[in-house]
Amino acid sequence: MADPRAVEALKAALRRLPGVGPKSAQRMAFHLLERDRDGARQIGEAIVAALCKVNHCRRCNNFSEAETCAICASAKRDAARLCIVETPADLEAIEQAGVYQGMYFVLMGHLSPLDDIGPAQLGIDRLLALAKADPIGEIILATNLTTEGQATADFIIDLVQPSGILVTRLARGMPMGGELEYMDPGTLNQAFSERREVESHSAAARADN
Amino acid sequence: MADPRAVEALKAALRRLPGVGPKSAQRMAFHLLERDRDGARQIGEAIVAALCKVNHCRRCNNFSEAETCAICASAKRDAARLCIVETPADLEAIEQAGVYQGMYFVLMGHLSPLDDIGPAQLGIDRLLALAKADPIGEIILATNLTTEGQATADFIIDLVQPSGILVTRLARGMPMGGELEYMDPGTLNQAFSERREVESHSAAARADN
């Protein structure tokens, strides 16, 4: 009531950001108007620019300014491997790790019937078309190990396996630096049931050469 | 690297919001571009509108679209009382409680030398001019009970008291609904040292009539 209408409108708008409640929105609006009008201008301009420039890569569905993103356009990537991730942030994490040189498909979410996100919203049909058209030898499922991520992976497996393409998923077990004492039962279960035989050190050394 | 430039620019811009780190900014950018482009548009427009419309009330320094805000312009408010608060949110909280009908002065912060916020940034000179020019009989200090809020209050007290105006501050003690077991030592200290004599119930009942 006491705040002018434009401030109320700004607070209401900021609440549309994920994880921002009324108190945070108030704090943000105050900060922008009182301490950082330059920052406010920058946010406004970045939103407008992103809305008008950013679209989806025609091939992998990731955000892209061009019709085809840099990864899909690169001749250096291995076109025979397709890694399926939920979000651009997941793709980014894999790229940062530097272990993978193949292509991606970004679902931009996971199956979530309550939020009206079904196979159509995730572009599963485009994924299947891609898997058929391209000379893809392996599909690597890299969805999150959450209930939703695993349900999404299971859904894709059922659709892809009949075509005979090799479908793999990331290994599950103890994370690097993990301490048994603090590990959840689910992880320990996985780590036990998928335990691997230890190679003899001399054999490993020979394999390295 | 993998994200297009406009997405990176959006993430960088969102990090200027208080309390938003790289992970939150990434989540927000993804949400705006993938799930809520309408919301993004709304935020962009609200920021532009607020930046161009919102200024400070000439009298109380609160945010205002008009030269004088609704409270300062109201004939119903008691012009003899001036309540000093740190932020518009504090003012709002007092208005919500509905206990106060006087005027306000909003400092828009507290003294914070490390952030280059001194008396000039808080408009202390305007506050003093206001206290002298208007027929003000009481100045109520309602800054936060944090170190910075109290330092700010002490600073104002030193400047205002010589003029002979009655200066008061909000009562300190146990909050309503507070449980002793969970109260911090500072609050318990205040509550003990400022304890009040209990009125006899019959006397209170008589005073109510």
Choose one word for the global shape of chain A.
globular
Q: Give the largest chain-chain interface (CB within 8 Å).
A: A-B, 60 and 60 residues
How far apart the termini of chain A lie comes to 74 Å
Biggest beta sheet attributes of chain A: 4 strands, parallel
Count of domain modules of chain A: 2
Low-confidence stretches of chain A: none
The secondary-structure element order of chain A is HHHEEHEHEHEHEHH
CATH class designation of the largest domain in chain A: Alpha Beta
Q: Considering DSSP H and I runs of 4 or more, what fraction of the residues of chain A is helical?
A: 40-55%
**How much is the average pLDDT of chain A?**
89
* Major beta sheet, strand line-up of chain A: 4-3-5-6
Rg of chain A is 22 Å
Residue fraction in strands of chain A: 5-15%
**How would you describe the oligomerization state of the chains in this entry?**
homodimer
> How many distinct helices of chain A?
9
Please outline the helices and strands:
2 copies of one chain form a homodimer.
Chain A: H1 5-14, H2 22-35, H3 37-53, E1 55-56, E2 63-64, H4 70-73, E3 78-85, H5 88-97, E4 102-106, H6 124-133, E5 138-141, H7 147-160, E6 166-169, H8 185-193, H9 201-208
Parallel strand pairs in A: 3-4, 3-5, 5-6
Antiparallel strand pairs in A: 1-2
Question: Your description of this structure?
Answer:
The structure is a homodimer of 209-residue chains. Chain A has helices at residues 5-14, 22-35, 37-53, 70-73, 88-97, 124-133, 147-160, 185-193, 201-208; strands spanning 55-56, 63-64, 78-85, 102-106, 138-141, 166-169. The first copy, chain A, has 209 residues and is an alpha/beta fold. Chain A folds into two domains: 5-53, Orthogonal Bundle (Helicase, Ruva Protein, domain 3); 75-208, Dna Topoisomerase Vi A Subunit, Chain: A, domain 2 (3-Layer(aba) Sandwich), CATH 3.40.1360. In chain A, the strands form two sheets. Chain A has a four-stranded parallel beta sheet. Chain A is globular. Chains A and B meet through helix 1, helix 2, helix 3, strand 2 and helix 5 of A and helix 1, helix 2, helix 3, strand 2 and helix 5 of B.
